Amino acid sequence: MAFRLLSRILRASQKSGLSVSSFSKLRVSSHYLMNACRLSSSAPKPQKETINVTFLLRDGEKQEVQAKVGDNLLDIIIEHDVDIDGFGACEGTLACSTCHLIFKQSDFDKIPDKPTDEELDMLDLAYGLTDTSRLGCQVVLTKDMDGLEVTVPTGVADARGGPL
Ligand code: FES
C-alpha cells in the first residue's frame, strides 16, 4: 500500500515539473521511507528452513539439533551449544583446524562447495584427517543435507599452536 502511494507521488512530481535536484531529493527521501516501511512491517518474517543434524561426540554420545539451512556447522554448534572442547577456536577465519569434522561418504558427497586451497591447507594440520574430512566452519547446510551425521574426531589440533 505504502509503495503504491509512493509510486503515485513520484509520478505526480515528475508530471508537475519539479526540478531535477528536487526530484532527486524526493527519490532519495522516498527510498528511505520505503526502507522504513519495510523494516517496520508487522508481517511475520519467513522462517529459515531447518534440517536435522546429528553430532557424534567424542564420548560416544549423540546430539541431534534442528539446524538452519544456510548456516555453517560452526554456527550450528555455537547456536545449539553443542559441547565440543576447543571447537572453532579461530571463529571461522580458517586459521585453526579445530572445527575438523568427519562425514559419512554419502553426506560428504552432498556438500555443494568443494574445499578451497586454504581449507585444504588447514585440514592437513587437523587431528585424525580422513578422506571425508571437512572444516565445519566452511560447510554450509543445504536442504539436501537433511539427516546429516557428523563425527567429531577424538582429538583436536589447533594449527595456530599445536595439539590442545
Ligand atoms: S574455526 Fe578455525 S578453521 Fe574453522
UniProtKB/TrEMBL annotation:
Q: Keywords in alphabetical order, please.
A: 2Fe-2S, Iron, Iron-sulfur, Metal-binding
**What cofactors are annotated for this protein?**
[2Fe-2S] cluster
Question: Start and end of every 2Fe-2S ferredoxin-type domain?
Answer: 51-156
User: PANTHER family of this UniProt entry?
Assistant: ADRENODOXIN-LIKE PROTEIN 2, MITOCHONDRIAL (PTHR23426:SF76), FERREDOXIN/ADRENODOXIN (PTHR23426)
Recorded protein name is Adrenodoxin-like protein 2, mitochondrial
Q: Which organism is it from?
A: Aplysia californica (California sea hare)
